[in-house]
Write a structure and sequence with these properties.
7-stranded mixed β-sheet; 5-stranded mixed β-sheet; Aldehyde Oxidoreductase, domain 4; single chain; 774 residues; alpha+beta; 29% helix
Amino acid sequence: MAYVGTRVARVEDTRLLTGHGTFVDDIIRPGMLHACFVRSPFARARIKGIDASVALRLPGVRAVLTAADINPEVHEAWHAVAGKDMPDTPRPPLAEGEAKFVGDPVALVVAESRYIAEDAVELVDVDYEPLPAVADFRKAVGGAEAGAPVVHEAYPDNVAGGLSGAPPDEETFASAAHVATVNVYQQIHAPVPIECRGIVAEWTAATEELTVWAATQTPHELRAFAARLLGIPAQKVRVIMRDTGGGFGQKVVPMREDMAILIAARKVPGPLKWIEDRRENLMAAQQSRHVDGTARMALDEDGNILAVDIDFTYDIGAYPTPYPVLTTAAVGMFFPGPYRVPKASFNYRTVFSHTPGLAAYRGPWQYETLCREILLDIAARQMGMDPVDLRRRNLLRRDEMPYFNPNGMPYDHVAPIETFEQAVKILDHEGFRKEQAEALAEGRYIGLGFSAYIEPTGANTGHLASEGATIRMEPTGKINVYVNGGSTGNSIETTVVQLTADVLGALIDDVSTIQGDTAVTPYGAGTQGSRSGPMTAGAVHEAGSILRRQIVAIAAHLLDVEADQIDLGGSKAFVRDDPSRSVGFPEIAYRAYYEPGQLPPGVSATLEATARFTSQAPIHWANATHACTCEVDIETGQVTLTRYIVSEDVGPMINPNVVEGQIAGGTVQGIGGALLEHMVYDADGNPLASTFVDYLLPTATEVPVIEFGHIEIPGPGVGGYKGCGEGGAIGSGAAVINAVNDALAPLGVTITRLPASPSAIVALIEESKNGTSQ
């Protein structure tokens, strides 16, 4: 293995850092038209009429399309994430009859430039009848019977659905030596990719073909979705994805605006481009995380966990991504976490509100870790135990694998106690506790928080269970590897080149990759579910092994030895016992492409292989422990993070730089969710954070240097690789909140409502001083 496991520089960086990336807004087509959406200014309003006459008289305006023009054109609108037979919630491309959130797309303006389209949007006269709305999902439960406005008539109680596991073992809770309970409210915050959503759709009427350029994490699924939506054969659709400036889950499935653009493209006389601006993204590109729940933990007198229970309500807005009832179940299923938990129970409901809708966001089940890890610290304080000792007592060990959590999740190839102990060692726990005591004596409040989690990566479910790859040696001897992939910041371009170079024995500079074009790449489920590492590694291994045998067979003929005497390395084939006898890849390729007749019978001239990898392991489990230290200014409420440590196990690392980059990015997003980011709505459903002036993101000044520790326990798949895309965002929020709570513990303050903003911290301190805190 010459390259896998090494810190190879990212092959895409030169292109991106010098401004030569190709993002969807860089696409310019002859005769291209531009689209802008007319959006509702009301959280709920009856649409009594739309008058586009003035807008249509504006020079350069080509069309104004409404729900009557667009919505009847929908043939099928299911996504592979849920499948065609799974019940789903409503999702019309344009608002039909009633707008259901501020920013709901009501009409589509098509013009010769973006500037004209923006101006024309202001000229479309929509006759709205404002209606009562419910933006707080907790007040929506029950619908009309509870006196709340109904979001969808088909769901009169505003509950899309829910699920329960085993009922709580109340006898255990009643008899336990210690029971800790916490209510944790997590605010709305969003993926906020650097590049907003965008799509260019070009319909060629003569051939009835559709070409789409998109900012997407799943080009092949977008292709299949577009074909279903329009009722045309999939071979008539080509999706091209070049560079995408982050997705984080928001760009996995096509949303309503994408549907409208795909349909409109067949109605206008030129390619159609829509680029979302930041205000639209914050207002309408769907939300994440919004949960309210109560969790309990029963422990014996020594601190051993006896049972856990969680009951929560999840806000899914007006138009959630596919089948939110099922995907939300992961919170309950994973709640026992990486701990030895004999009994677990959960119950939840998903609730509509007059806000945009729930979207996937890096670890969509993250609330289970946030809630459980805050609860563990509360339990430890109640028992007079250090949270480190409580976790140490209950974390699962390597010799306990395989282990089924009480909800039936089959853990294996992990040892959560090992990442935890490594984080504790890097931190110097005892040294920090001494420093903390000294700081308190000086009137300074510093704290330490831990968070441990276990997460499924590369899950063997539905269309996520397989991935394809094509590897071709070109006539020059250079190698191209084709995978679904796509550059969304997760470095598949680099890791796939490393994997291919090693499986073929090629020099890394001789390998390139082609990704994100459905016309030439094999089907793949794309970047989601922390699957890219284990699944592309499997696909490259399958295709590479076939091509390797073909290279070896031709080399054996040229070197006049048996195939089992040939090794590959350095972009050449050589005789194992006499490396001086060798033939380079260019010579092998020349013979195969230009002199195939000279190959003996039975030796194929083919230097190309396509294969699909299907995971045989149900789940590749990764895990990590986050440790955070902070100082809190109790006068201003300002939180300063002083150290941040992540010890993780994602199996052997294909590229440590990539792994650490993925973890760091997710960690910063979790820090933002804990301290800063908040998609605020007023009582009438108006968004109050629709720009970066109000929606605060973490910057380099808020984030300390992240320190890494690595434990490498191979997973069950090819190479033992596990996914690492979501873990940083899963573990960081709880570690930060626990650090803040540890710092404020001497004041009797515990934060359980996020974000932990300065004003919220000061208010809780004042409540504690006045004896009014819980």
